[in-house]
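Reopening this one. Same input as before:
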Amino acid sequence: MRLQIAMDAGNTADLLAVADQIHDVIDIFEVGTPVIMLDGSHAVRAIKDAYPDMCVLADAKIMDGGALECRYLVEAGADIVTVLAVSDNATISDVIGVAHEAGREVMVDLMNVADIPARSRELVALGADYIAVHTAFDVQAQGRTPLGDLTELVGAIEPARAAVAGGVKQATVASYVALDPGIVIAGAALYNAPDIRQAVIDMKGELR
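Same output, byte for byte:
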C-alpha cells in the first residue's frame, strides 16, 4: 500500500518546498490539477528534475486529446498520468497507449461514475494501471466520503489496482486501509500540517 500526497494548492515553488521535506518518505508526489492549470507541465518537469527518484503523478484529469496531452506530461517527467473515467474509451485507450509505450502508468479517476463496478472492470480491460474513487472537494462539503465507493471498487477489481481520494485524513485513514487499496491519497491533511514530514510519516505508519 502506497501513500500519495495530492498537492492541490500553491505554485511550482511551493511544491518544490514541500518535496524538499518529503521526497525520501512519500511514495507518490502528485502535481495537482490546480497547479497544472497555473504552471502547466513545467510544474511536473521542475519536480521531476529536482527529485528524479521520486514517483511523480500529474493529475491532469484528461478528457480530450488524450494522446497529445499524455505525451506532454510524460515528456515532462510524469510517472503516472490521470484521465477521467467519464471520457470516451478511445481517449482513455490513447492515454494508456502513450503512457505504456513510454514505460509510464495511468490512473483513471471514477469521479461522477454511477456504476463503479461495471466501469472499473471495463477500465481494467482497457489496460488501466490504477482506478481511483474520488469524492470531489465541493462534494466533501456536503458530508460525503469515498468510503462507500471504495468498498464497491475493491469488490469489483483487484484491490492493489484501487486508489482512494477525497478528504482522507489521519483520523479516518484506518477505515480506508482496512479495505486494502493499493494507493491512499491525502491532500490538505498532509500539506497543511504543522510538520508535513511528520504527518507523512505518521500516515504511512497507518498504511503499514
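So the earlier flakiness isn't reproducible anymore. For the record, The CA atoms of residues 4 and 28 lie 4 Å apart.
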